[in-house]
Design a protein that fits this description.
Elements (H helix, E strand, L loop, with lengths): L3 E5 L3 E5 L2 H7 L2 H5 L19 H14 L4 H9 L9 H6 L12 H7 L1 H9 L25 H15 L2 H9 L1 E4 L2 E4 L2 H19 L2 H19 L12 H8 L5 H12 L19 E3 L5 E3 H4 L1 H11 L1
Antiparallel strand pairs: 1-2, 3-4, 5-6
Helix pairs in contact: 1-4, 3-4, 3-8, 8-10, 11-13
Length: 310
């Protein structure tokens, strides 16, 4: 039997057996994602670094562990396949502060990628099953719900910052899929995940230093486009293709700003730039076996979220 062994830095070894998933994993489209930074920065100016490919394979692993349908696993593996160079940084460059520009171009990308279409056709997979990823509730749910996409990037971020494998095992062991949605087995594990997610939000997503850093890098990209060093079409390739065009620029603004980013020489302005305030409200089984939400049952966590959102 043909199979492929994934060796994920967070979850360890995992076997994938489904032929369509093996073909997609081996495709050029998924391979390109290993050159796309998840955090939206070149490796040289990132405090932590992992790729869109790592995230996509991580999502696939989690979907497999939680017994998702084959359609959901195909959707999970492909859900970020259209991401441009520097991922969500490109969304903001394109004017989408909510970072959903590429979400809105996913279906068009899939319909126009001959390699992916050929693989789907080979395995009799109806491409229309990818037109609405929201149907796969285990994969995607609106915030603040817990879904596999949100679970993987937050676990992955936490692991890269702490190297705490015990935390990862505890979260995965204490999660079950109920009606295609994730439910924690107890309040302790739900609270552990919620606190870890909040730490990431405060120290990364909504950290004024990180936000300023992102907009400084976007200014570099805009300047490079103005000077015709790069074009928007170049972002359809990968991070390295872009950086090789801008790193050796003699333009004073690009040169100086990149050096500041590399040296972390960043001044936070008095007026901080906008960002998404994210949080999670995980559901769990209480002592009576009922499914409840953490915010509704934990006064301390509720007050923390309310203060955070002010």
């Amino acid at each position: 039997m043909n199979l492929i062994e994934l060796n994920d830095p967070v979850y360890g070894k995992h076997i994938i057996k489904e032929p369509i998933l093996i073909d997609l994993i081996n495709s050029k489209a998924i391979d390109r994602l290993k050159k796309i930074s998840h955090k939206g920065f070149p490796k040289e100016i990132s405090d932590i670094y992992f790729t869109r490919q790592e995230h996509s394979l991580g999502v696939l692993i989690l979907l497999d562990l939680f017994g998702a349908s084959l359609n959901a696993k195909v959707a999970g593996l492909l859900h970020d396949v259209n991401h441009a160079a520097f991922s969500h940084t490109f969304d903001v460059l394109m004017g989408s502060l909510s970072e959903d520009h590429q979400d809105n171009t996913f279906v068009n990308f899939i319909n126009n990628n001959l390699e992916i279409k050929d693989i789907l056709k080979k395995h009799n997979f109806d491409i229309k099953e990818l037109e609405n990823l929201d149907q796969y509730t285990l994969l995607e749910l609106p915030a603040p719900e817990t879904c596999v996409d949100r679970l993987d990037y937050s676990i992955r971020e936490h692991y890269h910052r702490t190297k705490d494998s015990t935390f990862i095992k505890n979260i995965i062991f204490n999660l079950v899929s109920v009606n295609e949605e994730l439910i924690f087995k107890n309040k302790e594990s739900a609270t552990s995940f919620a606190k870890a997610y909040m730490d990431i939000c405060i120290n990364d997503f909504n950290n004024p230093l990180k936000i300023e850093k992102k907009f400084m890098f976007i200014d570099v990209l805009r300047r490079a486009i103005e000077l015709k060093l790069i074009t928007l079409d170049d972002f359809l390739k990968d991070d390295k293709y872009i950086t090789e065009k801008i790193y050796y620029s003699t333009d004073e603004f690009i040169f100086n700003t990149l050096n500041k980013l590399k040296d972390n020489d960043i001044k936070i302005p008095k007026e901080t730039k906008p960002s998404k305030k994210r949080y999670v409200n995980p559901r769990y089984y209480n002592n009576q076996g009922e499914i409840v939400k953490l915010i509704e049952t934990d006064k301390e966590y509720k007050e923390k979220i309310e203060n955070y959102l002010k």
